[in-house]
Amino acid sequence: MTSLNNPKKSKRLPRQLTLSFFNFSQSLLNKISIKKLTLIGFTFVAMPLVMALLFGANKASELAKQSTTAIYNVAQLTQLNSKLDDTIAKLERSASQFVVLKDDELLAVFSRHQKTLKDIIQETSAKQQDKVLKERLTSLQAESYRIKELMLSDDVSAFSLEQIQQEFKPLQLINEQLEKRSAFVVNQQVLDIQHTTEEISNSILERLYIIPITLLIAGVFIILITKPLKRLTDKIQLLEQGSFEQEINLHGPAEVREIADALENMRQRLHALELQKSSFIRHISHELKTPLAAIREGTELIYDNSVGPLNEDQQEICDIIRVSVNRLQRLIEDLLEFNIVLDSTSLYGLDKISLSELISDACNVRKLDIKSKNLTLKCNNSPYFIYSNSKQLSVILDNILSNAIKYSPVNGSITITYSSSKECITINIIDQGPGIEPSLSEKVFDAFYQGKAPINSQIKGSGLWLTIVKELLLRLNGNIKITQAKKISAANESGACVTITLPNTQTDNEL
């Protein structure tokens, strides 16, 4: 009555029941292992099938017994009709012969046939369950007694052949009624078997609901077993992407909790190592920048002849020192930026990104470098939206485009295309540079590795940025590979093709 008067309480009750059931199932799941859960699931799945199998076997056994009984009765009735026809025919024949020949031996034969008929009737009556059939047998026996008394009386000597045959007419009539009743009983038993078969068939068909119930039970246990494993997989993927901040604390079977504890220990160690690495890079970079600044300032003073003129050899040595110091300065700055990019906690957010706009922004950033080489950009401007990290993708595209510009010849072209499938989106950046040897396609992603620099390139590298690109793509569950352009596009006889693959997580696109 209270729940009807208070709608809020009536709505809250199912939620409380659902929450209570969830908490109960969760606590129960935490107490058992995957092995026990699998065994319980197998038992619950097998139980309805076993019950259906036992039911079918029982019904099949009943049908077999009924069929056996029916076959026996049919054979018995068929044999009875045959015996009765034969015995009654012999009985009439011996009686007719006695009336004609008046031989006592023929009367004895008649008596033997009459006794045989009596035995057949008594034996059949004891085995038959049909009341009408029994009544017909009783009438047949009474009629046979009447004929016997007639044959043993003195009046039989005055009977003619036609008269004695007339006396057998009622006996033959009862025999015909017996045959008709036997046929009816046989047909009835056939119909009973047919009806029983239909009932069993319908019962088995009705119990087909066990199949969806079994599938439902199997589905529930599959979810109970795989859901904790899926959560484990998600946590492992986060670790693979370099996310060490989120604590790993999972509920579920004992095995899952053990793996989760091991992963949590590994996460803590990896997080500590990541912090130590970042701290070490920052510390060593700043420590190197201080003496390097002094060396650079001193070298500039010497190079500007502030402390006196230099001869040619001294000037050459000073130039070498200046170039080396500048390169070392750039390496330290790239190392710091490398550490900042990979250590930034802001890189894990997902945004809705227009891929065409992101590529356009990356091209605008490198506009001066493109103009200096008079390069032609061919971009796929089809609108396409994905959910990813815009800052990471910007860094990735900027570095790949920078590499393409660096190795492209003057007046060359760079082609940027992208396509999608259900599983992934693929971005191809193709240049017309010297390309890359297959043996170096993986080595270029090693930290500080630098290939052969192109002639008169204004873009200098430290060998770190492709390493950063690969690391960022790993965090995005993506991949990168570099191949010869002719393997991707028949229009390019030379050059390199950088293929970026990202998981397709967009919700709407117009590609």
UniProtKB/TrEMBL annotation:
Reaction catalysed by this enzyme: ATP + protein L-histidine = ADP + protein N-phospho-L-histidine
Domain Histidine kinase: 283-506
GO function terms (MF aspect): phosphorelay sensor kinase activity
Cell membrane recorded as keyword: no
Subcellular location: Membrane
EC number: 2.7.13.3
A GO CC term attached to the entry: membrane
Ranges that cross the membrane: 37-57, 208-226
Domain HAMP: 223-275
Keywords of the record: Kinase, Membrane, Phosphoprotein, Transferase, Transmembrane, Transmembrane helix, Two-component regulatory system
The name this protein goes by in its record: histidine kinase
